[in-house]
């Protein structure tokens, strides 16, 4: 297969099914299950304030996706076609990065098949055209994986700086990735020969990430009073309290966990109350400290319950089926989620296990590091399909290596059989 044909196939696999879903969903993507970044984006475009209300700055979300939406709304308008087409373009770019990653791992066929498997993921085909910040997580993580592999091979300081900057953007999109630069700095530095070059490359990764993240942290320090990526520590508390496990066992999500008695209104609720004629102020930094203390108290006082939550989160993260009842829908979407998605993931898991024995050790180490990091993050926070899906391209490349090897063996067997005839 030529690289040109492979690229065309990958783009078609990314664009065509998502365009069909977008045509079916249309305006619903701006109405149902809309990520709160949309509200930040609309406020930013209307008033220049990054927050829920004009003139009231907030750090209650990671900013990257809100900036992305604000750019679309400023340049065009808030319309389902604008958002949907932009999301499809991001999905297509992600697929091309996965193709390049797979091509470097096992050749054009592995790259093409890995990218097709990754982009044809049933959950992502539907999820990618809706308003969700994971669309940028996928793009950032695919770029991070490709750059990490290149840096590990070439040991270039400038390339390592680019990897760090990309990691910084990924962190601004998903705060759970905050420690990933440390992990990948070690990855690109090993083996430590020559020692000086390894240390320079590792340092460049950390510097690149810091340069990108620091301005946002400084903004929060100046405008809110605390140096942080996000003040939404309440989300961490929702995943770490005595009610969480029962709620998740019933098929609910952490948003269904009851609030602690006497808790202050969180920024979004305070904004809603203000708009309803009940002016409500909130100190986001104080609230972040409040929920942080609750989490630390829970971890210290109930270690066994936290261990049970960690096991539950891991199970939910890696389950091929949907574990949250709110994710279920009827019709074709419901059928795809109940049957097609689990079957697809079981096949990918099986293929990835075989492919792990076929790919270069450097890529296998990278894939295992990233997947392990995501699992540990879920154990600390919570696990669900949408938190795993941005990392599934790694499994797709592994599975593609197994399938391509299988196809090759089948062709060789067929040729031998024909020669005997």
Could you explain how this protein is built, in words?
There is one protein chain. The chain has one domain. The chain is built from 19 helices and no strands. The protein is an all-alpha fold. The model has no long low-confidence stretch (mean pLDDT 94).
User: What coarse outline follows from CA principal-axis ratios?
Assistant: globular
N-to-C series of helices and strands: HHHHHHHHHHHHHHHHHHH
- Number of discrete helical segments: 19
Main structural class: mainly alpha
Low-confidence stretches: none
Radius of gyration: 22 Å
End-to-end gap: 28 Å
Total domains: 1
* Strand tally: 0
Averaged pLDDT, please? 94
Main β-sheet: number of strands, strand sense, barrel status?
A: none
Helix content: over 70%
Strand content: under 5%
Properties at a glance:
single chain; about 425 residues; mainly alpha; about 70% helix; globular
Quick recap:
The protein has helices at 3-25, 37-47, 64-75, 80-106, 108-119, 122-127, 134-154, 157-173, 180-189, 195-223, 234-238, 244-249, 267-275, 284-301, 303-318, 331-355, 361-380, 385-388, 392-420. The chain has 421 residues and is mainly α.
Write the layout of secondary structure elements.
Layout (H helix, E strand, L loop, with lengths): L2 H23 L11 H11 L16 H12 L4 H27 L1 H12 L2 H6 L6 H21 L2 H17 L6 H10 L5 H29 L10 H5 L5 H6 L17 H9 L8 H18 L1 H16 L12 H25 L5 H20 L4 H4 L3 H29 L1
């Amino acid at each position: 297969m030529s690289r040109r044909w492979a690229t065309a196939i990958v783009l078609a696999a990314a664009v065509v099914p998502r365009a069909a879903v977008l045509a079916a969903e249309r305006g619903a993507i701006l109405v149902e299950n809309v990520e709160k970044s949309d509200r930040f984006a609309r406020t930013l475009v209307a008033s220049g304030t990054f927050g829920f209300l004009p003139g009231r700055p907030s750090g209650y979300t990671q900013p990257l996706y809100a900036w992305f939406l604000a750019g679309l709304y400023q340049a065009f308008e808030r319309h389902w076609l604008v958002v949907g087409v932009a999301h499809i373009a991001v999905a297509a770019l992600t697929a091309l990065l996965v193709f390049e990653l797979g091509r470097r791992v096992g050749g054009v066929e592995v790259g093409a098949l890995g990218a097709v498997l990754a982009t044809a993921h049933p959950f992502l085909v539907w999820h990618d055209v809706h308003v969700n910040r994971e669309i940028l997580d996928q793009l950032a993580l695919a770029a991070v994986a490709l750059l990490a592999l290149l840096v590990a091979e070439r040991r270039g300081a400038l390339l390592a700086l680019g990897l760090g900057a990309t990691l910084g953007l990924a962190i601004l999109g998903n705060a759970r990735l905050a420690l990933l630069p440390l992990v990948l700095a070690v990855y690109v530095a090993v083996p430590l020969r020559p020692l000086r070059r390894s240390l320079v490359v590792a340092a460049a990764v950390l510097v690149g990430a810091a340069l990108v993240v620091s301005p946002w942290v400084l903004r929060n320090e100046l405008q809110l009073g605390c140096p942080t990526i996000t003040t939404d520590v309440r989300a961490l508390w929702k995943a770490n309290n005595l009610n969480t496990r029962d709620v998740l066992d019933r098929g609910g999500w952490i948003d269904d966990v009851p609030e602690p008695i006497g808790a202050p209104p969180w920024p979004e609720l305070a904004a809603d109350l203000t708009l309803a004629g009940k002016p409500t102020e909130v100190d986001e930094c104080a609230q972040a400290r409040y929920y942080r203390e609750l989490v630390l108290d829970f971890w210290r006082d109930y270690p066994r319950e936290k261990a049970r939550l960690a096991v539950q989160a891991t199970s939910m993260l890696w389950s091929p089926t949907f574990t949250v009842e709110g994710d279920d829908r009827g019709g074709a979407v419901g059928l795809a989620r109940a049957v097609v998605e689990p079957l697809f993931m079981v096949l990918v898991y099986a293929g990835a296990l075989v492919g792990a024995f076929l790919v270069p050790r450097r890529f296998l180490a990278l894939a295992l590091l990233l997947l392990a990091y995501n699992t540990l993050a879920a154990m600390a926070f919570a696990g669900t399909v949408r938190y795993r899906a941005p990392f599934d391209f790694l499994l797709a490349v592994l599975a593609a290596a197994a399938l391509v090897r299988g196809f090759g063996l089948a062709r060789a067997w067929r040729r031998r059989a024909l020669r005997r005839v």
